Amino acid sequence: MKSQYISELREGQAIRETFVLSKKTIKDKRDGGYYAIVAFSDRTGNIDGISWDSDNLTNISVGDFVFVTGNVAEYSGRLQIVVNSVSVVDAEKIDARDFLPQYSGDIEEVMKAIHGFVAKVKNSDPRRLLDSFFGDKDFVDMFSLAPAAKLVHHAYLGGLAVHTLSVLRLLQSIMSVFDFLNADLLITAGILHDVGKIYEYKYKKNIDISDRGRMLGHIVIGNEMLAEKVRHLSGFPDDLKLKLMHMILSHHGEVEWGSPKQPLFPEALVLHFVDNLDSKMEMMKQVLEKHRGTERQWSDYHPYLEREIYLGDDS
Amino acid sequence: MKSQYISELREGQAIRETFVLSKKTIKDKRDGGYYAIVAFSDRTGNIDGISWDSDNLTNISVGDFVFVTGNVAEYSGRLQIVVNSVSVVDAEKIDARDFLPQYSGDIEEVMKAIHGFVAKVKNSDPRRLLDSFFGDKDFVDMFSLAPAAKLVHHAYLGGLAVHTLSVLRLLQSIMSVFDFLNADLLITAGILHDVGKIYEYKYKKNIDISDRGRMLGHIVIGNEMLAEKVRHLSGFPDDLKLKLMHMILSHHGEVEWGSPKQPLFPEALVLHFVDNLDSKMEMMKQVLEKHRGTERQWSDYHPYLEREIYLGDDS
Amino acid sequence: MKSQYISELREGQAIRETFVLSKKTIKDKRDGGYYAIVAFSDRTGNIDGISWDSDNLTNISVGDFVFVTGNVAEYSGRLQIVVNSVSVVDAEKIDARDFLPQYSGDIEEVMKAIHGFVAKVKNSDPRRLLDSFFGDKDFVDMFSLAPAAKLVHHAYLGGLAVHTLSVLRLLQSIMSVFDFLNADLLITAGILHDVGKIYEYKYKKNIDISDRGRMLGHIVIGNEMLAEKVRHLSGFPDDLKLKLMHMILSHHGEVEWGSPKQPLFPEALVLHFVDNLDSKMEMMKQVLEKHRGTERQWSDYHPYLEREIYLGDDS
Amino acid sequence: MKSQYISELREGQAIRETFVLSKKTIKDKRDGGYYAIVAFSDRTGNIDGISWDSDNLTNISVGDFVFVTGNVAEYSGRLQIVVNSVSVVDAEKIDARDFLPQYSGDIEEVMKAIHGFVAKVKNSDPRRLLDSFFGDKDFVDMFSLAPAAKLVHHAYLGGLAVHTLSVLRLLQSIMSVFDFLNADLLITAGILHDVGKIYEYKYKKNIDISDRGRMLGHIVIGNEMLAEKVRHLSGFPDDLKLKLMHMILSHHGEVEWGSPKQPLFPEALVLHFVDNLDSKMEMMKQVLEKHRGTERQWSDYHPYLEREIYLGDDS
Amino acid sequence: MKSQYISELREGQAIRETFVLSKKTIKDKRDGGYYAIVAFSDRTGNIDGISWDSDNLTNISVGDFVFVTGNVAEYSGRLQIVVNSVSVVDAEKIDARDFLPQYSGDIEEVMKAIHGFVAKVKNSDPRRLLDSFFGDKDFVDMFSLAPAAKLVHHAYLGGLAVHTLSVLRLLQSIMSVFDFLNADLLITAGILHDVGKIYEYKYKKNIDISDRGRMLGHIVIGNEMLAEKVRHLSGFPDDLKLKLMHMILSHHGEVEWGSPKQPLFPEALVLHFVDNLDSKMEMMKQVLEKHRGTERQWSDYHPYLEREIYLGDDS
Amino acid sequence: MKSQYISELREGQAIRETFVLSKKTIKDKRDGGYYAIVAFSDRTGNIDGISWDSDNLTNISVGDFVFVTGNVAEYSGRLQIVVNSVSVVDAEKIDARDFLPQYSGDIEEVMKAIHGFVAKVKNSDPRRLLDSFFGDKDFVDMFSLAPAAKLVHHAYLGGLAVHTLSVLRLLQSIMSVFDFLNADLLITAGILHDVGKIYEYKYKKNIDISDRGRMLGHIVIGNEMLAEKVRHLSGFPDDLKLKLMHMILSHHGEVEWGSPKQPLFPEALVLHFVDNLDSKMEMMKQVLEKHRGTERQWSDYHPYLEREIYLGDDS
Q1: Going by C-beta distance under 8 Å and a sequence separation of 6 or more, which residues neighbour residue D151?
Q2: Strand pairing of E14-28 and D307-310?
Q3: CB neighbours of B247 closer than 8 A, spacing ≥ 6?
C-alpha cells in the first residue's frame, strides 16, 4: 500500500512516492536545453508535473512505474508536482491495488464467504481438490486479486472472487428448489468454473487479456489447472474429474458462446444458467447505479446486453 | 371423477360408466345382420369390447365420449366388455382428468402453495390484480387443469400450475441473492407469466394447441387477459400495468424465441432466466427418470435440448 | 397554427410567437450582471437571439416551448431576435405540426382516401369495427398526426396515414390478381395493422419512441386497441376478431422480425408482403429523391436497406 | 397427342399406343420358359399387363417409352393388357404432355396473355430483345412447356408460363400504385426473370433438375441466354443490358437465397417481392385446394412454408 | 491375429476360433428340451450356427466375444457352424483389428511415413516433444489403431494415422508455396492435432464415442495429453507450448465449429484449412468410389457435405 | 511511364509532367484578384503548389489528371511547385501504374509464370480455351494490370495476377497429394477463376468497384467472358464448359459467401479452399509485414479476418 495518493495531495506537500508516468513531453527551454511536461497517475486520479531537468526522464517510458521526489505546487489554479528526481520501479514490486480499480467492499470478507462454501463440501474427494487449490498461497493471492473481465462486468481487481461468490449463492439458492442436485459437485464446480481467469488476464499496470488468455481462454486454462491439481491427489475418481472438467468446459452453454460442449447433465446446466444470469445482472446493475439520481428514463444502447435499459422508478 | 376405471375392471363386473370410444369396426354376422368390434379407453388404459347390436353405434364416432352399460367377460385369455348399450356423452360434462395424463402429485397442494405466494404480495395494486384472477372461479378451474405444453415439458393436466409454482420458488430463492429486486413485481409477474396457456391449449379429449393458441400464442393471450382484469381495477397504476405486460411479453428472452421485446429491466431478465431454467431442468429430469434403473450411460438425442443426456451415476 | 415562422422573419419585424428554446448560454456583462445568448427553432428553421435581461430565462430549459416577444434585428450579416420577454408555454397547448417535420402533401386528402377504403367494406362486422375506430375523434386526430417511424421511413407527422394509404392501394391492386382473397378482411386489417403506432411514438417536441412503445411495441399495443374496440361491439364474431388479431400480430412476417407468429393464411401473408414492400420502397424513394440532380451514381451505404442504391439514369 | 389414355381403356379394346413401362418381372412358366408381369403408365394412370412371350422385353428397361400392341382383358376384377408386342420408342419423339402433369387450364391462353405484355413494351430496345426471344420458335416451345419447379410450386408442364404471367399481372398492378417505376424495364425483366428454367429442368419422362440446372442454376443460365440474345441486337444499350442482367441475378432478393447481389434499385426490388409473393401464394393455394371440403382446420406442416396453414372458413 | 476368418471357412472344417456372438434364439426341441439358433461374425462376415445343447449359451449375451469349437456343415445350400462348445472371451484379450473395419492398406507403412515427418523436425524442442509421444509404446499402439471418426470420414481402424499422414503431406506441399511458414512448428502441430482422438473413441467391439469424448472432445483431451508430455521435458519453452496448444485448440477454425479460439497466426490458419480440406476430400472420395462403375450422375444427398455430389465422367 | 515522380523532386527543378490534382482552393489576393493553393499527387507521394494565376484552374476539378509546368521551390521548410500552367489530360492516355499502388515485384515474371501453367495443360480443349484468353492482347493487358480487391488483399495493380499465380502454385502442390484430381481441369479453372475482376474494378485514377462489378460481380462477369470465348471454339465439349462455369461459380464455396452453388466435385472443392486460403494468408502476411520490427505482440482488430493477429516471435 502506498502512503501518498494523488487525490489527497495538497499544495506544498513533499512527494516521495510511486506513480505511473502517464504523459511525457520534452520541450525547448527559451535559454537552450530542455525541460519536460509530465503527468502521473494512480488509482485515485491524475496530476500534472514539470521536471526542469529532462535528463532523468531519458530512459523512462509512458506506462512505467516511477518513484518520484519533488513538491506539490499550484500553477494557474491547479496542483502540479515540481519534480526533483524520477526513477523506474520494477513492476514486480508493485501492488496492483494501488493503481487499478478494485472492489469497493472488503475482498477478505468475500474470500471468507467462499471458504465457507468450501467447508460445506462433505465428500472427501471434491473437498481434497478444493483444499489443494485453497492451500496454495500463490493461487489464493491471484484468485483474490484477479478481475472477472476486461470490460464488461466485474472488470476490477477482486472481480473474480466477487463473481464466484455470487454464483455460489445462486447455486445454493437454486438447490433449495431442485433438491435432487448433487450439492458437492455443484459447489465444487461453482468455485472452480472461472479459475482460469487468474491467467487469462494481466492485472499489473492495467487490466488486459494475457497472451495465454487470447490463445487459450480461461476455459482451457482452468481445465489444465484442474488436471494439474488432480495429478497430485492419489486415488481421485476418474468420473469426478471428468464431470468437473466437463462443467468448466460447458459453462458458457453453447458452442457459439465458446463452450466446445453443451451441458450434458443437470448440474452442468444449472452452473451455466447461474454464470450467465450473474454476469447479465451485474451489467444491468452497473447501468442502473450509473444513472441513479438522474432524470433519464432509458440508458444508452448497451453493446453487450444489446439493448437500452429502462431506468424508471420502482412500482 | 369416474367410479370405474379400465385398469381396475374384473371379470363378471357390471359396467355403467363413461369411456372414450377408441375403435369401431362393423362386421357381418354369419346369419345376416351386423355386430361391432369396439375398444374403450380412459386415462388408465384400454379394453376391447363387442356389441352384438351394431345399431346403437351408428351415430357414434371414434373419439367420442360414450356412456356404456354391459358386463366384463373373458375371451381367449383377455378381458372384454360385452356391451348392452352405448350413448354419446356431451364433452362439456366430462372431467378431463379422467381421460388425460395428469400431475402425479396433489394439484390442490400446488394451488395452495401458489396462493401462499399471492399472500406474500404486500403492495395493494399487484395484490388486487392477483385477487381478481384468483377470485375468478373459471380462471382458477382452468389454471389448475391446464398443461404447460403439448409435448415438451409439463405436458399433463396440472402442468401449468406445477411449472408456475416451480418458477415462483426459483424467483424467491434468487431474490435472496439479488436483494435489490422488487419482490411484489417479480412474484406477480411470476404468477401471471403463463396464464395465457389456459386458452393456448385444448385439454378435453387430448392435449393440443387451440386455434387461438396457434394464431396468437400464450404471450399475447396472457396480455389480453391482464388488460381485461386491469380494466376493472379503478386507479390501477399505468406503469405497473406496463411493466407487467412487458414482463409477460419478454419472458421468452429473445426475439427469435418469440418475445417481440427483450427483457429491459432486472426483474424481467430474472423472470426469463427462471422460466427457461425450469423448462430445461424439467426436460432433463424426465429423461433421467425414464432411464432410472437401466444400465444406459447416455439417452437418445433429445430434439428440444438438442443433445444426448448423460445418465451416469452421481459422484 | 402559428402566425410567424422563423424562415419568414424579416429585419425589423415585431415578434409575438411560440418557439422551442434550442440554445441558452448565460454570459457576464462587461459592466457586471448577465445577459443570455439564445436560439429558437420551429419546423421551418433556427434563429439566434440575445436577451439583455437574463432573469426571465432562469427557470426555462433548452427544449421548452416558449412564448417570445421582441424584435428582429441584423447582426454581422445575420438575423437575430432581440428578446423582450420569454415565458414557458404548456406543451399540451402546442400543435406539433408547427414544430416537427410533416407530410409535404395534404393530410386531409390522405384521410379522405382512407375513409374511401372504409366505405368499401361491405360486411357489417368489419365495417362496425372500422366505424368504431373512425368515429372516435381522439383516435382520428392521433392517427392523422402520428409518424410511421422514428428514423427509417415515413418519419414525419402524417407518416402513419400516408403509409396506411399506400398499403391499402397495394392490397387493392394485388386483389385484382389474386381474386380469391377476402377483400373485407384484407382491407380491414390493412387499415388497422399499424394503429398501435399512435401510442408507440411521442410526437410533440420531437419524434421518439414512447415508454409504451419500447416496452410493448405497436403490434401488441394495436392488438390491445382492437380488443378494446371489439368489447363494445355486441355479437362481434370470435373468429373474425381472431383473424384480425393474427394479421396485426404476424404482419412483420417472421419471428426474428418481431412477429411472434408467421402469417398462417393468404390474407395475412399478403398483408406482410405489402407492408414490407411499402416501407422498403419508401426508403429507396427517399434515397433517390435526395440525390436527384447530382452526378453521383451510387448512394452511401444505407443502414436499414444494408446496401448502396444505384442512382443512375432511367433507360 | 396420344389417342388412347389408360384411364379410358375398356375391356376388349385393342391397344396400339405408347406408354411408359413402369414394372417388369420375369417369371418361370410351369411348363418351362418364361413370361413377364408388367405395368404401363401415362399421365392418366397405371394398368397391369401380362406378356406370355418375355423375349420382346429383353432389351427394354423400366422407365422406357414403349409402343404396345395387345388387348384389354379383365382378370380377377381388374383390367389388364394382354400384350402382343412391345418395342422401344425414341424419347425424342414423345410429347411430354402425354406423360407428365400439366397446367389444368389452356396454356395457349397463358402464352397469349404474356404476348399481350410484350406488346405493351413501348421502348424499341427492350421490345427488340423480347421479340428476339419470342420470335425464336424453340424458345417459345420450351417456355410454354417448362415447369417452374420440381416440387414446390407450379411443378407441372406449363408452370413456368403460368408463374410468369402471374408475376406480370402483379407487376402491372403494383405499378398503378408506384407510378415512378420504369414500366418497360419492369415488364421486360418480369418476362425474362425465370427463362433459365427452360434448361434448369428436364421434363420428358419426369420433372427433374438437369445437370446444367444443378451446376449453374436458372439465374446464371438465364443471364447467359440474355447475353446471347443481346449479342445479335446491334446498338443495344449497355446500361439496359446491365440492369436486366442485374434484375435476373437479384430476383431471389438475398445472398443466402441464392442471389449473388441484392436488388439495387426500385424495379429490381419490386421484381423480387412479386416473384416471392407469387410462389408463396401458390403454395398456400395448393394447400387450401387440397383440403377443400374436408373438416380439417389446419394443414400438415409445410416444409417450404415452414408452418401449418389455417384452413378455416372465410369470415 | 486370428487364424480362422469367417469368409474363408469351408464345409467340413473344424472350428477353434474367437468370434462375436451376433444372434441367439432359444427354441423348443420337439422331444422336449431346447436348442439354440445362433450367428457369429468377425470383420470378414457372418455365419449362422446351431447348438443342440443350449446350456452353454445361458450366460452369454449377443455382442460378447466367444471362443467356439465345432464343425462347418452345409444346410439347405448355406454353410453353418454346428457348435460343440462356446465360452466367453475377455474383451481385453481381443485384437480389435480382427473384428472392426480397418485401413485397406498397410498401416505400418503409414506409421513409417509419419515417423519420416518426425525426423524432419530439426529444432530440438519440438523434436523432443514428438519423441516423447512416439517413444511411448502405449501411445503408438493406440495412435496406429484409432479411427478418425465414428461415421463421417476415416471411420475405420487406422483412420487417425491415415488422416494425420494426409494432413502432413498437405502441410508439406503448402509450405513449398508459403515459404515463410515455420516448418517445425507446422509439422509438429500437424502430427499432434488429433491425438486426443485415441481417447475420444472406443474401438474394441464397435467404433463409438467414449464418455470422455462426449464430455470433453478430442481438442481438450489432446491439449491435456500435450501438457502432460511437456511436464516431463525440462526447459521446454513456454511460448512453443502455448503455440502448439493454440494450434490444437483452433484447428476447427471457428467457434461455431467447436474451436473456442480462431487461428491467430499463419501456421494455425494453414493447419485448420488442411484439416478441413482433407476431411471433406475424403468424404467426396468415398462417394465417388462407392458409385464407381454405376451409371448414376449424382449421388444421394450427403448429410455432412450437405449436397449431392456429381459423379460424371472426367473431361 | 512518367519521367518525374514527386518523391524525387528537388528544389529548383523545372517541372513538365502529369500529376493528379488533389487539392484546389481559390483565395483572394490582397490587391484584388485571386490565386490558388493546390496540391498534386502520383503513386510516390504528394506535393503542395501555388498558382498565382487562378484562371488556368477554372475548368479543372480535384481528381483530374493535369499536365503541369512550373518550378520546384522551398517555402517554410517544405518543397512546393510554383505553377506556370496547368491543363487537363485525357484519362485514356494515362498509364495507371504511374498513379496507383502496384505490385512491388516484377509483374512480367508473374505473367511468365502463369504462362508456364498454361503450357502445362495437355488436353487440347482446355488449352485452346486458355490460348484464346492469353492470345487476346486486351485481355492480357487488363489481366496483368487489375487488382484482386478494392481494400482487403492484393488491392494493388497486378494483384489479380499475383493472386492467380499463388492459387496455381497451391493447386499444383495439392495435386501432388491428391493424385486423382484432373490436373488440366484444375489448372484451367485456377487460371480463369477470377478473370471477371478485370471488369469488376476500375483502376485508372483510383481502385474502385465498377458499375458492372456492383451489379453483377466478378463471378457472373467471368462466366459471361468464358461463354463468349467458348462460342468461338468449334467443337468445345459441353461438359467441360459446364464444369468450368461451375468452378468459377462455386469458388466462393457457400451460398452466403456469394456462390449460388456449392462445389459439387473434388476439383471445385479444392479450388474454393485454395482461393480462400490464399486470400486469408495474404491478409495475415500484410498484418505481419506492417508490424515487422515493432514491439507489439498483437495487431489491431482486423475487420475481414475478424480477429487480432499474433505478432510474436518465431519459436
Answers
A1: none
A2: unpaired
A3: B185, B189, B193, B263, B267, B268, B271
Which grid coordinates belong to C61?
430549459
Gap between the Cα atoms of B300 and B310, Å rounded: 10
Q: What is the grid cell recorded at C38?
A: 439564445
A87-96, A97-106, B54-63: range with lowest mean pLDDT: B54-63
D204/D96 Cα distance (integer angstroms): 5
| Overall residue count recorded for chain D in this entry | 315
Render pLDDT for A272-295 as a digit per residue (tens, 0 to 9). 999 999 999 999 999 999 888 888
Terminal-residue alpha carbon distance, chain A: 44
pTM comes to 0.87
What percent of chain B lies above the pLDDT cut of 70?
99
Tell me which chain C residue has its CA closest to the CA of residue D168. C177
Best residue in E214, E244, E261, E265 to probe A by mutation, most A CBs within 10 Å? E261
Q: Which residue has the higher pLDDT, E194 or A205?
A: E194
The β-bridge relationship of strands E78-88 and E45-51 is parallel
CB atoms within 10 A of CB F308: 17
Helix (H) or strand (E) holding E37: strand E34-42
Count of residues in chain E: 315
Unique residue bearing C-alpha cell 436348442: E35
**pLDDT higher than 90, residue B154:** no
Pair B210, B200: CB distance under 8 Å:
yes
Quick one: closest CA in F to C297, which residue?
A: F211
Task: Output the nine-digit C-alpha cell for D159.
Answer: 408452370
- Give E-chain residues touching F182 at CB under 8 angstroms: 314-315
3-state SS assignment for residue B66: strand
Residue bearing the bigger pLDDT, A55 or B5: B5
pLDDT, greater one: B314 or A270: A270
**Which of E174, E239, E307 has the CB atom closest to F315's CB atom?**
E239
Are E177 and F173 a contacting pair, CB within 8 Å?
Answer: yes
Amino acid in position B277 = L
Cβ-based neighbours of B177, under 8 Å, separated by 6 or more: A166, A169, A170, A173
In single-letter form, the type of residue at position E219 comes to: I
Cell of D181: 417505376
Chain B contact set for D297 (CB, 8 A): 211
Main-chain phi, psi angles of E30, to 5 degrees: -60, -30
List own/partner pairs for E197-202 with CB under 8 A and 24 or more apart.
E197/E146, E197/E147, E197/E148, E197/E160, E197/E222, E198/E139, E198/E142, E198/E143, E198/E146, E198/E160, E201/E146, E201/E147, E201/E150
DSSP C176: T
**Which residue, C198, C188, C146, is CA-closest to C167?**
C188
**What are A298's strand-pairing partners?**
A310
Q: Do the Cβ atoms of B199 and B209 come closer than 8 Å?
A: no
Q: Quick one: DSSP state of residue B102? A: B
Q: How many residues does chain F have?
A: 315
Beta carbons of B214 and D312 less than 8 Å apart: no
Q: Which residues of C touch B262 (CB under 8 A)?
A: none
Interface residue of A177, A186, A265 to substitute, partner B, most B CBs within 10 Å: A177
Give the integer Cα–Cα distance in Å for A76 and D6: 107
Asked whether the beta carbons of residue F178 and residue E281 sit closer than 8 angstroms, the reply is: yes
Task: Determine how many CB atoms are found less than 10 A away from the CB of residue A178.
Answer: 21
Chain E closest-CA separation from residue B253 CA (Å):
22
In this prediction, residues D195-211 reach a mean pLDDT of 91
Say how many C-beta atoms besides its own lie within 10 A of residue F182's C-beta: 18
Q: How far is F138 from chain E (nearest CA, A)?
A: 29
Q: What pLDDT is stored for residue A315 in this prediction? A: 36
Least confident of B27-36, B299-308, C131-140: B27-36
Radius of gyration of chain D, Cα coordinates, nearest whole angstrom:
24
φ/ψ of residue A14, rounded to 5: -85, 135
